[in-house]
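Appendix B, record 7
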Amino acid sequence: MIDRQARERMAGAVRDYMNEKMTAFDFDEELIKIMNPTTDKTVQWVGQQLWYYYDDCKDHKIVATKEEWDYFNRLLLLLDSDGEMELTKKIRWHFSQVIAATCLALFTYIVIRVGMDVALLAFVPPFGIVSMIMAWINRRQERKAISAIEASIVPFHSIKSLLSVRRTIPDFVKARYPKTISGRNVRGIIMTKLMLIPSVFPSILIWMLVAPIVLFFQMLPGKKYEIRIKMPETAKASPELQAHA
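Structure tokens (predicted):
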């Protein structure tokens, strides 16, 4: 269901953020206010995607590369249109699932031989390492599978889809990338890396401790979500109108 008011509010917030009329904290607050009451799934999805493009720990003006700026423009195009975002789910199998199943079977064998003893904890970390390596390889392969063309038209699944939406809004103007924000960062590279430490190490430790559970989920069929933009169908002329034509 299209919520035109929510779409206009979100598009306005994005444009204000891009034009530096709104900082990250205000932008975050505005997005939440728009997303919470609406039932428009497209608005909710766009708001969720925008969360990755600003920092909610440090207030700042827009920070975006040229590619990210173009992505904002395409999100604005979607919000200005009557297109509705749909997610299609596909099941996929890959070799890492066989590895995960093998590791889980091996761990089960170890449990049977060792028993539910404290000594069992010594066998868990190696399975955690294998699990993390598989996760890293899968993410890398997924990124490689996305071509440059596909990355340049997201959230649209094809150039045809992008053009079809663009034709419905002839007065849409793409905002140019301002050179003033080129190279702008929220914080330095060293500080960014240091901020990851408190979250990375506990995550690795937890992963190590619950490796068998993670392997179980890695063994299951993978899910791939594809985005489709559905435009409303043109209403067919009624028999009365056809009679007068």
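Remarks on this record: The chain has a mean pLDDT of 87. The two ends are 32 Å apart (CA to CA).
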